[in-house]
Design a protein that fits this description.
The chain is mainly α and 94 residues long. Helices cover 53% and strands 0% of the residues.
Length: 94
């Protein structure tokens, strides 16, 4: 499905459904920074990784999308920060 839409959606739910079906783009700068971190994977920490992700709004959404679809039944609270989401996911996913 293309990222373009022909008309505005009437409410929040159609937007949520639309973004479930498309892969959100990531800024080139973000991809370069993540690639640099991969070369030093043993020393990645969640704070540094979160700082990179938080500078890219759509990458931030992708992290929260991932968490929403892979949420554990035992997870009692909503994750509200990228850093906490990364603690749950782990840094190896990136």
């Amino acid at each position: 499905m293309t990222l373009m839409i022909d008309f505005p959606f009437p409410g929040l739910e159609p937007w949520v459904e639309h973004f479930k079906e498309v892969e959100l783009p990531v800024l080139r700068h973000t991809m370069h920074q993540l690639a640099e971190l991969r070369d030093d994977a043993d020393r990645i920490n969640t704070r540094k990784l979160a700082a990179i992700i938080e500078n890219d709004p759509l990458m931030t959404v992708r992290v929260f999308q991932y968490m929403a679809t892979h949420r554990s039944q035992r997870q009692a609270v909503e994750l509200t920060t990228v850093e906490r989401a990364l603690m749950m996911i782990g840094t190896q996913k990136f």
